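Re: alpha-D-galactopyranose structure - here you go.
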Amino acid sequence: MELIDVSDELTFTLRNAAITYAMRVSTEGLLEQLYFGASINAPSPQPRPLRHCTVMFEDSPTLTLNELPQEYPTQGRGDFGSPAFHAVGADNSVFSFLYKSHRVEDVKPMLDGMPSSRGNGVKTLIVTLVDAVQHVEVDLHYTIWANQAVIARRVEIRNVGSTPISLRHVHSSALDLPPGDYDLQHFHGTWAREFNAERVPLPTGRFIIESARGTSSNAHNPYLAVMESGATETEGDCFGTTLVYSGNFAISAERGEFGRVRLLAGLNPFDFDWTLKPDETFATPEALHAFSRKGLGGLSHVWHDSIRAHILPERFHNAPRPTYLNTWEAAYFDVTEDKVLELADVASGIGVEMLVLDDGWFMGRTDDRRALGDWTADPDRFAMGIPALAEKVRAKGLKFGLWFEPEMVSPDSDLYRAHPDWAMSVPGRTPSLGRHQMTLDLSKPEVVDHIYGQLDAILSSGQIDYVKWDMNRNMTEVGSGAKAHRYMLGLYGLLDRLMTAYPDILFETCASGGNRFDLGMLSYMAQGWVSDMCDPIGRLSIINGASHLFPTDVMASYIGPSPNHQNGRVSSIRARFLAGVVSAARGVSLNGPEIAVHKDALTKYVQFSKVTARDMLGARFDRLRHHGNETIWQQTSRDGSTVYVITFQILNAPNLPLRRVRLRGLDQAARYTLDAGAIYGGDTLMHRGIALTIPTEDFAAELLILKKVS
Ligand code: GLA
């Protein structure tokens, strides 16, 4: 089977064993969408019933654009839905694209200046459309992989005329789904409460998630799933859409008056105005669409495989992550050389492999009101400097990690005093501070160069194994949506340089936890700090929600203090460990006395994390249950040999009923031992399930381990 077939009549079919995506050039020359879903042979065009009160397209008596699904719809010619593309030309804003040419490539052409999924074993269809009146061409890129139920889409827009045009809506993708009853699922949240999954029926009208904050944001992660309304975790057609982008975005679903469902994904059109001069090209970020017939769980498996294979830096693919001790909740800003060395001893005493020095190590940074931008060690507290300290920590047999927040500047900093014009601001307005800090203007090459130089000065010592890259405020006084996009291009350019120079340093993306947890950042950084919420009960919904899109390979979690610093809850060390047990990167953030109290348990958990490090990479993750009082997850190692079942019951009650859970995705014919005891058939585990302990306390957490024996 060819991955891409182009018929003589110009029907384009992208197809593998899991999905088909098809479009054709209509008799009018429009690029008409035919189908996206389970793998089928080339689908035929839909009928075009005529309706009252619609507008004919040109002189075609059978065509109204308001119902024709198009690959790159515009406004102004009879399609009254939201446009994928909208611009203002020399004297009007009416655009309409017709087919010009196409080509098929055996590679995925590079997207310059922005991250995008990697294209091995792919075919890419590029269809060029033209508006001969406005003199604009668009190249629509579609990539299909041989073995993934994912399509990558992006667009390049060229001004082939002689006057500038102003780009306003430049979505990466438009996708019309067949009429039907659908639900939408999206993730909303805020600091320390990220990734709340909300499922609502798709209304008539337009539902939009978006960010105009300069980060992809925790308010709405850039991810929208549309599913048949009856879909469950294991059954039903589900479509997922996300972007490989970390800035202002918009993803919307719109049901028109005749039931057409249009998905749009791309840069947020709000306040976006990009001047495209003659001969210039504008490239959109990449959008990804995934499909599964096997419900939301199936859709997650598609995303997990695809993100591991095509997004995450290859260097860290299946590379076990070191266990770590992070100084943040252990000491906050109260860090000194001596304390770090002491904590390094405490860390190695419980078997931890890496010491991460979080915030507080640079010039006068004794609280969050100062010093961002001055990335040299504070001489009063770190007299020997960071490389020498790192060397000492490493001499103890540990790796060394360091926190930076490179995109920010404190007004009270040498950098700001020297270059006030490097911070985002607009004339006549006092800059708004967030966490007492301002955002550096990364659209300026000199700012990017400066940041690179400062990081390079420390990283080039060769003593740093890991960097936590933080970003702790939303942007204001940016000035325009175009500038916000230029900022992202500056950031991606900086990250490209750093990753090229330091391919072996493990980077972790963080933005007050999950305020920029997206495929753009994860293209450079193999893992992310999902949330600052470390209370196990608070973290359950966050991991559960994030798991819809993200594999556990990218998740970092640590055992934090109890009572918890974010919500005050007291919880057992066991529950704190188990809430993060599926994460690839596991650690602790406790001080010496707290560690001493739990030394035996922590030693055991750290050892367990080391032994199971590989099992948390490339694993199959199943959300077996997640509602009111109970969460149950199943993590099955990549080779299928080990199955972890993690159960949480939040509140206890007397005389509880029996509990049972059915497992998923096991080898029906194999046998598994439970906690090295009883033996069960894979079929029994999946169909009858296993009995769970009846909890006897609040926040009860349990881990069951099944090993395949034959
Ligand atoms: C953010 C991060 C935390 C920690 C602090 C340091 O809040 O999410 O993990 O690094 O910054 O200031």
